[in-house]
Design a protein that fits this description.
Elements lengths: L22 E8 L7 H9 L1 H7 L4 E6 L6 E6 L4 E5 L5 H13 L34
Parallel strand pairs: 1-2
Antiparallel strand pairs: 1-3, 3-4
Helix pairs in contact: 1-3
């Protein structure tokens, strides 16, 4: 009698096997004349081409918005979008914000510093300084 393994279809998880980037589209809005768009204009002229070639899975849309502050908008596969105003930032800071939008998951920011509650008491019990061998005074 031979033993055969049970065949199982693997379930894909993000980060295991093929990684799917959550950001699918990035809108870049700028103003040609505004002083607050100097860094954005420098980013578009010098670094956007390289950034776009390194991230071919993201669609980049560059559009002018006269008399408005520059904005980066990331659209994600879960339907959410995040906007970051980059007024008065230089081109390297704009690049950092674009990378932040690229690496974000698209989920809303949640508060994580809530205390942990449990329905069962600790296995070790409640600690007290009088437990154990005792303290020498």
């Amino acid at each position: 009698m031979t033993i055969r393994a049970i065949e199982k279809i693997s379930v894909g998880q993000n980060g295991v096997g093929a990684f799917i980037l959550q950001c699918k589209k990035m809108d870049i809005h700028y103003c040609n004349q505004g002083g607050s768009s100097r860094g954005m204009n420098a980013f578009i002229k010098s670094q956007l081409g390289k950034f776009a070639s390194l991230n071919p899975q993201i669609e980049f849309v560059v559009s002018p918005r006269p008399r408005k502050h520059p904005v980066l908008v990331g659209h994600y596969i879960n339907g959410n979008q995040k906007s970051i105003c980059v007024k008065n930032m230089d081109s390297l800071q704009v690049l950092k914000k674009a990378e932040l939008l690229r690496d974000a998951s698209g989920d809303k920011v949640r508060r994580v510093n809530r205390p942990v509650t449990s329905i069962s008491e600790s296995v070790r019990g409640v600690w007290s300084p009088y437990h154990g061998k005792g303290m020498q005074v």
